[in-house]
Amino acid sequence: MSKLKLVLGIVAIAFVTLTAVSCKDAKTDKNNSTEHHSEMNADGDHSKMNHDNSDGHHDGDKKEMTMNGNGTSQAVLNDYFSLKDALVADDNAKAKNLGGVLAKSLKAFDTSKYSGNEQSELNDIIEDAIEHAEHIAESAMDHQREHFKILSKDIADMIAITGTENTLYQQFCPMYDGGSAWLSMSEDIKNPYYGSKMLTCGKVQKEIN
């Protein structure tokens, strides 16, 4: 009888031990499965993040392309007016930078849609305008204004051929260098040749439509 109890006790201990081991293995498998699942989720999130970054980069390129000069007279005018405003503000460094920007817009100007004679005239005008824009990009304020006077004549000659999307105003200062003109999108006089010294010196010479 005691032998039977001993055998039963050994069997019971073996059963408990086996159950405990099986439970531990199952828990380990579950943990491994959970870790594997977590790694997959992390990889999934990483993939999603990379995809989102890729989309963001694409949008950035698209935006940059939209902002680039489009080779039209309007693009040239926009950069010319920005340069004018820098001279009005007596900002030599900004005018230097914008002189370079305008030179690039002029070089990118596509004349192919104009007639043969117009193309020839535009090419001569643009070549001269580029030279003065590049000088502005390298000069002190007084020389910038000297080159801006001739540049303004070139831009006015360009508009006489290409036309303009907006109403422009040719303005005139009788005091600077024997009389000097410039173009503006506003009737208000803001003199780029004297800046803050004589900001409102000048008059509207004509309206350009």
Automatic annotation (TrEMBL):
Comp. bias regions, Basic and acidic residues: 26-65
InterPro entries: DUF3347
Domain spans labelled DUF3347: 76-166
Keywords associated with the record: Signal
Disordered: annotated span: 26-68
Keyword Transmembrane helix: no
Signal sequence coordinates: 1-19
PROSITE patterns: PROKAR_LIPOPROTEIN
Superkingdom to which the source organism belongs: Bacteria
Protein name: Uncharacterized protein DUF3347
